[in-house]
Amino acid sequence: RILRDGYMSMDMAQNILVIKTVSGMAMAVAAALDALHFNEIVGCIAGDDTIMCAVRSADDTILVMDKLKKLIAG
């Protein structure tokens, strides 16, 4: 639910996944991401409206983006 409510957009740069959220929601969304225990994600750093996730590889980043899109779509 927090992912759906807070999510705005996402993009990637090699093995870095950047997720934009509603203002003030980045920490909550990052905590929800951590709770999913995706093996591909090494860790996340959250600001006010942006999350940067270190992902194991560029291919894994694409995989994580696909997983998140499916979760957000419901």
From TrEMBL:
Domain Arginine repressor C-terminal residues, every copy: 3-70
GO molecular-function terms, A-Z: arginine binding; DNA-binding transcription factor activity
Gene3D superfamilies reported for this sequence: 3.30.1360.40
Any GO BP annotation: protein complex oligomerization
InterPro entries: Arg_repress, Arg_repress_C, Arg_repress_C_sf
One Pfam family, short name: Arg_repressor_C
HAMAP family tied to this protein: Arg_repressor (MF_00173)
Name this protein carries in UniProt: Arginine repressor, C-terminal domain protein
Organism expressing this protein natively: Hungatella hathewayi DSM 13479
